[in-house]
Amino acid sequence: MKILLIGEYSNVHWTLAEGLRVLGHEVTVLSDGDDWKNYQRDINLRRRSLGIVDTLRYLTDVEFTIARLKGFDVVQIINPVFLDLKAERMMRYYRKLRRQNGKMFLGAYGIDHLWVREGLKPETFKYSDFYINGQLRDYPFLQEMKEDWLNGAKGQINLEIANDCDGIIAGLYEYWRCYEQDYSHKQTYIPYPINLSKTIHIKPHPEYPGIRFFIGIQKTRNAYKGTDIMLSALEELKKKYPELMEIVKAESVPYPEYQHLMNTSDVLLDQLYSYTPAMNGLLAMSKGLVLVGGGEEDFYKLQGEEELRPIINVQPTKEDVLRQIEEQLLLQPENLKRLSEQSIAFIQRHHNYVKVARQYLDFWASR
C-alpha cells in the first residue's frame, strides 16, 4: 500500500511510518518536523517565518508539493490545520489531496474544535485543561483556543473535514471521548506507536542512590500543562526528603539532551490535567521510567487493560501530587522497580509500533 502521512506531533507519524515500513508498505511523511523538535520526515515543508518573503516562499512550496502528491492509497492528516497556513486556506489543499488520492483520514491527536467544545463542558470530564473542580480555568492560552476553534474558521474546517473524510483516528482517550458523540460511526481509538528498539533505558546511576525525578519545563506552557504545580510539589518534597530524591529539570534544551536527562532518571512528571499519558509519557514508560501524571481508569478500560497499572495517577492539585509521590515512592521505594517493570510491559502490550501499524491498516481497510 502507498501511504502519505501529513503533519507531526511528538514523532507520532514518523514512528507509525517505521511500523508500516516493517510491514512492507511504502510510506511518505510530510511535515515541518514539529517545529523546533525537528523530527525526521521525508518531505520537509517548514515555514521559516511570518515575513512576506518567507510566506511567499512557503506558499510556493505548498502549491508545488501538494500538486505532486498523487496516487496514494491512504492519506492521513494529523489535524484539520495540517499546514502552517491560516485556516481559510486549508480546505483548498484538503480538497486537492482528496481528488488526487484514495482514502482520506483525520487524526484526532491534539487541539481541535471537538476537543475544545467538549473540554468546555464540565460534565464531559471531571477535570481537563479547561475545568478543574467545576471551575473554568483563567489562562490566556485557553481563551485563544476558544476564539480559534469554537466559532472561527478552524472550527468550521474541522467539521467539514470530519464530515467528509473516510475515518477519524483518536490517539488518546480524551480525543476519542470528544469525537464519540457525533462521529462514533466513523472514528476509532488506536494507541500511539512507540518504537521499542529505540528506547533503551540507560540507567542505573550508581553515584546517586535516591530517586531521580525528571520534569520538562516549557516557560510558555507551564501553567497550562500543570508543570508549575508539579515542580512546586517536587521542591517541597525535596526539602522534606533531601537525601531520598533529586530533581532533574530540562528547560528549553535540545531534544538529544532532553532524552539523555530522561534516560538517566527514574520518574517522569508530566501532563497534570490529562486522563492519559501522551507521547512524552509513553516514551518515558518504554524506557522504564515511572510516570506521575494521567492514568485514569477510563484510559485503561479503553485499552482493554485489566491487569497492569503502571502510572501513578494524580488529581490536578498540588496536595494530591505531594501525597501520591510521598506515599507511593518516597515511603515505599520498593514500588519503583515494580512500576518500572509494569511500565515497560504496558508499552510492549499496547503501544508496540508494529502492532499499532497493523491496527491502522485494519481500520483504513475497513472504511
Could you characterize the architecture of this molecule?
With 367 residues, the chain is of the alpha/beta class. It folds into two domains: 207 residues, 3-Layer(aba) Sandwich (Rossmann fold), CATH 3.40.50; 155 residues, 3-Layer(aba) Sandwich (Rossmann fold). It is built from 15 helices and 14 strands. Strands 3-2-1-4-5-8-9 form a seven-stranded parallel beta sheet, sandwiched between helices. A five-stranded parallel beta sheet has the order 11-10-12-13-14, with helices on both faces. A two-stranded antiparallel ribbon has the order 6-7. The radius of gyration is 21 Å and the shape is globular. The relative contact order is 0.11.
Count of individual helical segments: 15
What is the highest CATH level, the class of the largest domain? Alpha Beta
- What's the rounded overall pLDDT mean? 93
CATH architecture of the largest domain: 3-Layer(aba) Sandwich
Question: Sheet with the most strands?
Answer: 7 strands, parallel
Q: What number of domains?
A: 2
CATH homologous superfamily of the largest domain - what is it? Glycogen Phosphorylase B
Radius of gyration, in angstroms, nearest whole number:
21 Å
* Shape call: globular
Overall strand count: 14
Please mark out the parts with pLDDT under 50 across 5 or more consecutive residues, or reply none: none
